[in-house]
Amino acid sequence: FMAAKNASVMPRACKISMIWLIFSLSGAVAAGFFGSAFFSAHPDLGKAVAENHERVFMILSTTLFNPWIGGILLSAILAAVMSTLSCQLLVCSSVLTEDFYRVFIRPNAAQKELVWIGRLTVVAVSVVAILIATDPNNLVLSLVSYAWGGFGASFGPIIILSLLWRGVTRNGALVGIIVGALTVLVWHQGAWWGMYEIIPGFVLSFIAIVVVSLLDPNKPSASMIETFDKVQYKLEDVKKQLA
User: Fold this and answer.
1) Could you tell me the pTM of the whole model?
2) What is the pLDDT of residues 13-44, one digit of tens each?
3) More exposed terminus of the chain, fewer Cβ within 10 Å: N or C?
C-alpha cells in the first residue's frame, strides 16, 4: 500500500493482498491440522513436536520429503526469520537512537555519534534476543502474541481516536498508552479468565484516553484542530475516489 501510485489502485491492491493472505494463512492452518493428524497416527515420529509444537512444519518437511526438497522448505523458514529480524533490528536502532537518545539525552549529537549509538543498539538488542531464545520455555508464538498485545493495547486506541476525535489531548494520549501497557503486563501474569490481554488493555486504554481528555484543562490548540480538519478533509476526498 505504501508503494501505491495513487488512490485509484487501492481497491485492486486490497483484493490482491486479501487473496494472498487467504492462501498463506490457509497453508499455515493446513500444516497444523495435517501435522496433528500425522503425528497422532505416528507418535514415534512426533516426540520433538510434542516437546515444542512450533516444530511441526520443520519435522514434517524432513520426514515426508526428499532431503533436497526438505532443505529448500527449511531454507524458506530461515529466509523469513532473517528478513523479519533485520527489519526489527533496524527499527529498534532507529527508534532508540532518533526518538530516545537524540530527543532526551543528546539533542545536539553529531551524525557520527548517532551512527555509533545505532550500531551499539543493534548489538544490545541482538544480545537480549539471544538471551530470550536460550530459554527453552519461550515459544515464538506466545512471545509474538504477548508483544503484539502490548503494542495493540498501548497504541491502537490512541491511533484510532486521533483519527476520529479532535478532542484527544496530550495527557490523554500519554495516560492511555501507559494504562494499555500496564494492563497487558498485569493481565499476562494473571491470565484471568483465559482472555487475551490485548482485549482488556485496549478497552481500558480507550476509556482512559477519553476520560482524561475530557477532564484535561489543556485542550488541543487551534493549530492542532486545524490540522485534524485538514486530514479529515483529505480522508473524505480519498473515500470519494475509492468509491
Assistant:
1) 0.71
2) 888 889 999 998 998 899 999 999 999 888 88
3) C
Let me know the angle formed at the C-alpha of 96 by 92 and 159, rounded to the nearest 5 degrees.
Answer: 75
* Segment 52-95, tens digit of pLDDT: 888 898 899 989 999 999 999 999 888 988 888 888 888 888 98
CA distance 199 to 190: 14
- In the prediction, which pLDDT does 133 show? 81
Residue linked to cell 532526551: 104
Q: Which amino acid is at 164?
A: L
Query: For the segment 196-239, what is each residue's pLDDT rounded down to a tens digit?
Result: 899 999 999 999 999 999 999 988 888 888 888 888 877 777 67
Give the residue extent of every domain in the chain. 18-64, 83-138, 139-243
Note whether 189 and 214 are within 8 A (CB).
no
Structure confidence by residue, pLDDT tens digits, 171-198 = 999 999 999 999 999 988 876 677 889 9
Distance CA 3, CA 146 (A): 30
